[in-house]
């Protein structure tokens, strides 16, 4: 009897589930139940109903959880916090196209076939580098490594020079600009005081001369 499309997908899905259970058992316990099974078991498994195989898979998962604490903790985490696990993707529905739609798709991509073929042909026509060129490149590797080390050393030296230059500029600004500015301010204040003193003396002399 031919297997329907939905049943075929279900059988393949359960087969994948059984295969993953076998790998999980091997990863967690170091042994697989396949070691104790013969060929008759696989023949019986194919003949069993989907519901029976699914029930067997659930029983195997429970037995595995009883043997492995890691599996039990993961199942407990899934039962209590199922939202942290990625959701399974819904199976995409099979899309059927008519012959005219398929023909239109092929025609729309027909121009790409010659281009792809010519590119593949051009790749085959590319010459293989000679052994001398490959040898010279290999011999250049130590020199390139030395150049890379030299470049790293120069980069560190340049960084150190930049830091020293920034420190010198900061010191020049503090001493050459700010200090001189404060000095000129102090001199200006002293000149203003001297000017006030001279004006007071001139006023005093003028008043004394007027009194005489």
Provide a descriptive summary of the structure in words.
It contains 7 helices and no strands. It is an all-alpha fold and 212 residues long. The protein is elongated and about 140 Å long. Residues 34-43 and 89-93 have low confidence and may be disordered.
Topology:
Blueprint: H1 5-29, H2 39-47, H3 50-67, H4 69-80, H5 99-108, H6 112-125, H7 131-211
- Detail the poorly predicted runs: 34-43, 89-93
The helix tally amounts to 7
Structural class of the helices, strands and pairings? mainly alpha
Tally of strands: 0
Helix content bin: over 70%
What's the short version?
80% of the residues lie in helices and 0% in strands. With 212 residues, the chain is mainly α. α3 crosses α4 (69-80).
Quickly list its features.
single chain, 212 residues, mainly alpha, 7 helices, 80% helix, elongated
């Amino acid at each position: 009897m031919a297997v329907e499309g939905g049943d075929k997908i279900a059988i393949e899905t359960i087969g994948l589930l059984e295969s993953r259970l076998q790998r999980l058992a091997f990863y967690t316990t170091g042994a697989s139940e396949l070691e104790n099974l013969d060929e008759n078991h696989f023949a019986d498994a194919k003949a069993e109903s989907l519901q029976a195989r699914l029930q067997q898979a659930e029983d195997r998962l429970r037995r595995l959880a009883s043997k492995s604490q890691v599996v039990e903790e993961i199942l407990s985490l899934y039962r209590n916090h199922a939202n942290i696990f990625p959701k399974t993707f819904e199976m995409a529905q099979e899309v059927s196209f008519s012959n005219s739609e398929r023909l239109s798709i092929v025609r729309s991509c027909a121009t790409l076939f010659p281009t792809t073929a010519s590119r593949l042909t051009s790749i085959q026509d590319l010459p293989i580098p000679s052994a001398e060129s490959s040898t010279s490149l290999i011999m250049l590797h130590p020199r390139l490594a030395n150049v890379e080390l030299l470049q790293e050393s120069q980069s560190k030296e340049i960084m150190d020079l930049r830091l020293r230059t920034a420190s010198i500029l900061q010191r020049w600004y503090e001493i050459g600009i700010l200090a001189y500015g404060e000095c000129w301010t102090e001199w200006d204040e002293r000149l203003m005081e001297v000017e006030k003193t001279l004006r007071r003396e001139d006023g005093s002399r003028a008043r004394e001369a007027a009194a005489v």
